[in-house]
Amino acid sequence: MMTTYGRIWKYGDDINTDIIFPGKYTYTLQKIEDIVKHALEDLDPTFAKKVQPGDIIVAGKNFGNGSSREQAVTCIKESGIIAVIATSFARIWYRNAINNGLPAIICPEAVSYAKHGSIGKVELKNQTILIDDKSYNFPKFSSTALNIMEHGSLIKYVQYNLRNKI
Question: What domains appear along the chain, each with residue ranges and CATH number?
Answer without folding.
Answer: 5-164 (3.20.19.10)
